[in-house]
From TrEMBL:
<dbReference type="InterPro" id="IPR036860">
    <property type="entry name" value="SH2_dom_sf"/>
</dbReference>
<dbReference type="InterPro" id="IPR013625">
    <property type="entry name" value="PTB"/>
</dbReference>
<dbReference type="GO" id="GO:0005925">
    <property type="term" value="C:focal adhesion"/>
</dbReference>
<feature type="region of interest" description="Disordered">
    <location>
        <begin position="1"/>
        <end position="34"/>
    </location>
</feature>
<protein>
    <recommendedName>
        <fullName>SH2 domain-containing protein</fullName>
    </recommendedName>
</protein>
<dbReference type="Pfam" id="PF08416">
    <property type="entry name" value="PTB"/>
</dbReference>
<feature type="domain" description="SH2">
    <location>
        <begin position="51"/>
        <end position="158"/>
    </location>
</feature>
<dbReference type="InterPro" id="IPR035012">
    <property type="entry name" value="Tensin-like_SH2"/>
</dbReference>
<dbReference type="InterPro" id="IPR011993">
    <property type="entry name" value="PH-like_dom_sf"/>
</dbReference>
<dbReference type="InterPro" id="IPR000980">
    <property type="entry name" value="SH2"/>
</dbReference>
<feature type="compositionally biased region" description="Polar residues">
    <location>
        <begin position="1"/>
        <end position="12"/>
    </location>
</feature>
<feature type="compositionally biased region" description="Polar residues">
    <location>
        <begin position="22"/>
        <end position="33"/>
    </location>
</feature>
<dbReference type="Pfam" id="PF00017">
    <property type="entry name" value="SH2"/>
</dbReference>
<keyword id="KW-0727">SH2 domain</keyword>
<dbReference type="InterPro" id="IPR033929">
    <property type="entry name" value="Tensin_PTB"/>
</dbReference>
<dbReference type="InterPro" id="IPR051484">
    <property type="entry name" value="Tensin_PTEN_phosphatase"/>
</dbReference>
Length: 276
């Protein structure tokens, strides 16, 4: 399938793209998202370079945390559940009845939890009393204030520590980009099946079909993130969907419209007409 969207860059000059992949469905929930102040969410997001490691394995998470202070944690992308996250948390004492590991007892103190996507946000899986949070950063912030269903509160790193990680001379810009992913806001236009077409020809057909729509579809601003795991679209306003994840092995081509056609829209910030 093909998803048409338009990226909005810092220079104010959007450009059309096509992204291919299969749709993923969200887990539906009737629970309203737990509200967390924007300033607190931003504070947590500023430290995410330390606690969000999308591409590490479960074993690497254990190695990172086993000698850390209780409450230290890391969040990674789940390999078993695409679109979900794995939370690894260092605790002070092992859970009751946990089998002992004679090789490395400290690894018993790293507990693992699944953060699942819902139609309205994210929540800890299997915890009936846990609310839904509008974002991963909101969930992390709230659990840094109170443990809730976790064994202990999350211990947030200091923002200046996150800055030191980014400025580390031993980390190349390419490595940082692969580890953190790249993200921007895009205009989501529509999705279509391109059948056997691939590459630029599929892009051309998708754009032609887009402009043949009667009436024309409405553009929706969504968050676009690309990493080694694939491409993730998040509709923060929940107008069309919450989150769609396209794994790397399902993406055949991303590219510009070879005919350089543009999409006209009205800026929500300025009210002026723009072309993309």
């Amino acid at each position: 399938s093909a998803t048409s969207y338009t990226s909005i860059n810092s220079g104010g000059h959007p450009s059309p793209h096509i992204q291919y992949g299969s749709r993923r469905s969200s887990i539906h929930s009737n629970t309203e998202p737990q509200e967390v102040a924007d300033a607190n969410v931003k504070f947590v997001r500023d430290t995410s370079k330390i606690w969000y490691k999308p591409n590490i394995t479960r074993e690497q998470a254990i190695a990172m945390l086993k000698d850390a202070a209780p409450g230290t944690f890391v969040v990674r992308d789940s390999n078993s559940f695409p679109g979900a996250f794995g939370l690894a948390l260092k605790v002070a004492t092992p859970p009751l009845g946990a089998p002992s590991s004679p090789k490395d007892p400290s690894s018993e103190l790293v507990r693992h939890f699944l953060i699942e996507p819902t139609s309205r946000g994210v929540r800890l899986k299997g915890c009936a009393n846990e609310p839904v949070f509008s974002s991963l950063s909101a969930l992390v912030y709230q659990h840094s204030l109170m443990a809730m269903a976790l064994p202990c509160q999350l211990l947030l790193p200091e923002p200046d520590a996150a800055a030191r990680v980014l400025d580390s001379p031993g980390t190349s810009s390419t490595q940082q980009l692969l580890a953190q992913g790249a993200a921007c806001n895009v205009l989501y236009l529509f999705t279509m099946d391109t059948e056997s077409l691939t590459g630029p020809q599929a892009v051309r057909k998708a754009i032609t079909t887009l402009f043949d729509q009667k009436p024309m579809p409405s553009a929706t601003i969504v968050h676009f993130k690309v990493s080694t795991q694939g491409i993730t679209l998040t509709d923060n306003a929940r107008k069309l969907f919450f989150r769609r994840h396209y794994p790397t092995n399902n993406i055949s081509h991303c590219g510009l419209d070879v005919d350089e056609r543009t999409w006209e829209f009205i800026s929500e910030d300025t009210g002026k007409a723009l072309s993309a």
